[in-house]
Write a structure and sequence with these properties.
The complex is a heterodimer of chains A (480) and B (442). Chain A is α+β, with helices and mostly antiparallel strands. Chain A has helices at 2-14, 70-88, 120-135, 204-209, 211-227, 242-254, 259-262, 332-336, 371-376, 427-432; strands spanning 19-35, 39-56, 59-65, 104-108, 140-158, 163-181, 184-190, 197-199, 234-240, 292-295, 316-321, 324-325, 346-347, 356-357, 362-364, 380-392, 398-410, 413-418, 421-426, 434-437, 444-453, 458-466, 469-478. In chain A, strands 1, 2, 3, 4, 5, 6, 7 and 8 form an 8-stranded mixed β-sheet that branches. In chain A, strands 9-16-17-19-23 form a 5-stranded mixed barrel. A 4-stranded antiparallel β-sheet of chain A has the order 12-11-10-15. The termini of chain A are far apart. With 442 residues, chain B is of the alpha+beta class. Chain B folds into 2 domains: 6-209, PmbA/TldD fold, CATH 3.30.2290; 215-439, no CATH class. In chain B, β5 (163-178) and β6 (183-190) form a beta hairpin. The longest helix of chain B has 18 residues, at 74-91. Chain B is globular and about 70 Å long. Classes of the chains: A alpha+beta (480), B alpha+beta (442). Chains A and B meet through β1, β2, β3, α2 and α3 of A and β1, β2, β3, α2 and α4 of B. β3 of chain A pairs parallel with β2 (43-61) of chain B, so a sheet runs across the interface.
């Protein structure tokens, strides 16, 4: 990998790059799924390539290729420089990069049990047991269980002297049980919806999910939802479980604090942000219970690494401090606009994508309450679990979320199941109404594997630490 | 931009299948040259190019399926690909195995291909971005957007005799214009970059932006609407995903009730991969020729899309709508088209009388799939319609609406259709629509 990067950087420098960096990525993915007791899939993916980013005449060019022979690599380096020169035709202000000491070192995800050393038989046995247990529940019409494992070697080098080698290992899994009838389709998932929950960890992360042990439960819950009453309509107390709290953080704080969105880099696609720089340090984003950080050093998160994809060391940044908006996730280029160092949030989906500002692990820091206490002190409200639908505007203000499961709360007790719950609000109003966050015992790292941004599209894996939390006076209703 | 010739790709595919032995095997090779120039605030800020080859091998034997995918050095790839697929197949549990499709004698045509796209250079893309920015600057606006070109060659070869090849091109331009207090949007997509007019695109975005200044809040509620083709594309794509697949029907999660009139007689939706007005492509990921399927005919639900798995269970031929197999997602529409009507956009607005004009929808997600209920926001230009004419701009609104219910109350369909691309990068051919009601919730 070093030889490849050295060749690419030499050619880029000769072709006129004032700065260049190179990423060599080798990725191995193993995906397994079992569906409805009759469908089984095992897929092995291998992916390797090189991406080179060059700064020429104050403008960027990027080229990538999956051929590792010298002529192909040299062509890619020269193409990046040619593209940069073309970019310079429409560039009024030259790119500036915040200073960063050249990174040198290695990093590897701490792994208990290497998932690629675990036999396929053991993995398939787990999936078959989980799938069978879901299918054994009367009324379940479709069920699926899946696992996915990633091993990615990344080498980053730059003309400034950076040289960083990283090994990232991810383990993920999940299952869904669906029941259909009487004009309704209801799905319950474990541990999270949209396919799977994933962590930077070894196979121990999958074992901790206890898929087989939760299969009957989610099957029964899906069937029960078919005949549950619709979620009531009105303004009420809302308690979110950790998975939904994680997605709420992702959409309404994570994306809103990406500095490239703030300056308009994503305006043509993902949008901008309501958190403009003039609000920093003085805008009340949430209540005093709300502290949100971007922490690439957190254990197990999908945004945990040694260095980001432009060689900036992993770090923890406070985005919201006891309710007050404090900071952004940034890159060297976006941080330079504000005279700051990068916060180390420059990430690329793979070798064939340019790094852009992405979430690392955006965490709602734990509070002092508990789910039990929150329910016990709620007079009239709902406790909602596991995301079902999500939508938010291009400035990250107006949101609407739906969840798979809902529990009605009356006078401090859960009194029944409700279905098709949705809630809506405006980001700062919502977070200002937060009056409790559960403590460290219920705080857990969650993984989002489908965070989309950028053109061409990039799906990046990000982490969110979260715990159950409570909000007052939220607009809640049922989709019907 | 160029990709290897048909003969070279087929020879590569044969060299991989030669390593397989006696198993049933299917190889899909996708060779792609892609470039995208991105601009913001009237200057280029990201500008990328990618060259890649993906190979996907499916092995089927002894009621077991193994799949391996490889992107990387081709010399090394073939050997590793076969070994990985065989290891996966050998260890997979026995399950439902669908035989590999046999050749259906369909032609490798028509294919969307344009010479100007294939020859587009970084300098050409920068010129187009500059032309867009110049229109914006002249109007005192900032522009943001994309100029994108790609060439893709796809080969599907199998031990059952399939030998399919198609080389396709695609070009896109997107422009978002920003003024002091509002935005405007325009996009264009075509097989041939020579058909894209950067200046006209920028003028449309600038004109919408110019009208969309000083928007005021509107009380949410139910309104008549005229949706531009940009918005209609989102509606039709979600309608398809919520019910056109035969797998959705099998699993009783499709809204479709074949033979029943569920929508206005002005609504006919087809998936037609051969439509020369769209972005034609002749076969699916199994090498099966993609047939035109009428899913909704004059408001009546008709047919489902099939891949070989759903077709086998239903006892019908595949319609050629497979994603890479095996998968748990089922068949998928890739060439959706809504039949045109007879009205111009001005006549649609006149027919609406009083209501809202919606330029674009954003972040559309399912809320209640069986009822085709979706939510999302309006974006980049929402205007009152008063007395049959476009009026003042209003702030973006959230909608929560059943698509089927909305399409049951159609006041008119535009006669001009545009190629649009959705988030999944598939092409749709759609006109503007006037709808009798659309529910805005916040």
């Amino acid at each position: 990998m070093r030889d490849i990067a050295e060749l690419v950087l030499d050619v880029a420098a000769q072709a006129g790059a004032a700065y260049a960096d190179c990423r060599v990525v080798q990725r191995q993915v193993q995906a397994l799924s079992v569906k409805d007791g009759r469908f089984a899939e095992v897929t092995a993916r291998e992916d390797a390539g090189v991406g080179v980013r060059a700064l020429v005449d104050g403008a960027w060019g990027f080229a990538s290729c999956d051929r590792m022979d010298a002529p192909s690599l040299e062509d890619a380096a020269r193409l990046a420089c040619r593209i940069a020169r073309a970019s310079a035709r429409l560039r009024r202000v030259p790119v500036r990069l915040a200073p960063c000491p050249p990174a040198v070192g290695t990093y590897a995800t701490p792994v208990g049990r290497d998932p690629f050393e675990v036999s396929l038989e053991e993995k398939m046995d787990l999936l078959i047991r989980a799938d069978e247990a879901m299918g054994a529940v009367a009324g379940v019409t479709s069920h699926r269980a899946s696992l996915e494992f990633v091993r990615e070697q990344r080498y980053f080098a730059s003309t400034e002297g950076a040289s960083v080698e990283q090994l990232i290992v991810e383990s993920g899994g999940g299952m869904d049980a669906t029941a259909t009838g009487d004009g309704e389709v209801q799905t319950r998932s474990h541990p999270n919806s949209f396919g799977r929950h994933q962590l930077c960890a070894g196979y121990e992360a999958v074992q901790a999910m206890d898929l087989a042990g939760n299969a009957e439960r989610i099957g029964s819950e899906a069937v029960a939802l078919l005949t549950a009453p619709p979620c009531p309509t009105g303004r009420m107390t809302l308690i979110l479980d950790g998975t939904q709290a994680a997605l709420q953080v992702h959409e309404s704080c994570g994306h809103a604090t990406e500095l490239d969105r703030v300056r308009g880099d994503e305006a043509a696609y993902a949008g901008t942000s309501f958190l403009t720089p003039d609000l920093r340090g003085r805008f009340r984003y949430g209540s005093e219970h709300v502290t949100i950080t971007a922490d690439a050093t957190a254990t197990g998160g999908l945004g945990t690494f040694g260095w980001d994809d432009e060689g900036v060391a992993a770090q923890r940044t406070v985005l919201v401090d006891r309710g007050v908006f404090r900071g952004y996730m940034s890159s060297r280029e976006t941080a330079a606009d504000h005279g700051e160092p990068s916060s180390g949030a420059m990430r690329a989906e793979s070798w064939n994508r340019i790094p852009i500002v992405r979430m690392t692990n955006v965490n709602l820091e734990p509070g002092e309450s508990s789910l039990e206490e929150m329910i016990a002190t709620t007079e009239h409200g709902v406790y909602l679990q596991t995301n079902r639908s999500w939508s938010i505007d291009d400035r990250r203000l107006n949101f609407q979320f739906g969840t798979q499961n809902g529990h009605l709360i009356r006078d401090g007790r859960v009194v029944g199941l409700v279905r098709n719950a949705i809630y809506a609000g405006r980001t700062p109003d919502f977070w200002r109404s937060c009056d409790a966050v559960a403590g460290p015992a219920e705080w857990r790292m969650w993984g989002v594997v489908n965070c989309g941004k950028g053109q061409p599209a990039q799906l990046v894996h990000v982490g969110h630490g979260a715990a159950p939390c409570r909000f007052q006076g939220v607009a809640v209703t049922a989709a019907s | 931009m160029s990709v290897p010739r048909r003969e070279d790709l087929l020879a590569l595919a044969d060299s991989v299948l030669d390593r397989v032995g006696r198993q049933a095997a299917e190889l899909v090779i996708t060779e792609r040259e892609h470039a995208l120039t991105r601009f913001a605030r009237n200057q280029i800020h990201q500008n990328v190019a990618e060259s890649s080859r993906e190979m996907r091998l499916r092995l089927v034997a002894d009621d077991r399926v193994g799949v391996a995918e490889h992107r990387g050095d081709p010399e090394d790839a073939a050997e590793r690909l076969v070994a990985a697929a065989e290891a996966a197949r050998r260890l997979a549990p026995a399950g439902e195995v669908v035989p590999l499709p046999k050749p259906d004698a369909g032609p490798d045509a028509p294919v969307a291909h344009g010479p100007a796209t294939a020859s587009a250079s970084p300098e050409w893309r920068a010129e187009q971005a500059s032309a867009i920015a110049a229109v914006g600057a002249a109007a005192g606006l900032e522009t943001f957007g994309v100029v994108e070109t790609s060439v893709t060659a796809t080969v599907v070869v199998s031990t059952t005799g399939n030998r399919r090849h198609a080389e396709t091109t695609a070009a896109s331009m997107i422009c978002v214009a920003r003024g002091q207090d509002g935005w405007g949007y325009a996009d264009r997509h075509h097989r041939d970059a020579a058909h894209l007019d950067a200046v006209a695109l920028a003028r449309e975005a600038a004109e919408t932006c110019g009208r969309n200044q000083g928007a005021t809040a509107l009380t949410p509620g139910v309104h008549r609407v005229v949706l531009s083709p940009y918005a209609v594309a989102d509606l039709i794509a979600h309608l398809s995903d919520l019910g056109f697949s035969a797998l959705a029907a099998e699993e009783r999660r499709s809204f479709m009730r074949p033979g029943e009139r569920m929508m206005s007689e002005l609504v006919t939706v087809v998936d037609d991969a051969a439509d020369p007005e769209g972005m034609p492509f002749p076969f699916d990921a199994e090498g099966v020729s993609t047939r035109g399927v009428t899913c909704v005919e004059e408001g009546v639900c008709r047919s489902f899309l099939h891949d070989s798995a759903t077709a086998l269970r239903a006892g019908v031929p595949s319609t050629g709508h497979a994603l890479p197999m095996p998968n748990t997602l089922g068949p998928w529409a890739r060439h959706l088209a809504l039949s045109p009507g007879v009205l111009s956009d001005a006549e649609l607005i006149e027919a609406c009388g009083t209501g809202l004009y919606v330029t674009r929808l954003w972040y559309v997600r399912d809320v209640h799939p069986l009822r085709t209920m979706i939510t999302g926001m309006t974006r980049d230009g929402t205007f009152l319609i008063q007395d049959g004419r476009l009026g003042r701009p209003v702030r973006d609104l959230r909608f929560t609406q059943s698509i089927v219910d909305a399409l049951a109350d159609v006041g008119g369909v535009g006669r001009e259709r545009r190629i649009e691309r959705d988030e999944a990068e598939r092409a749709l051919l759609v006109p503007s629509l006037c709808l009798g009601h659309f529910t805005f919730t916040s």
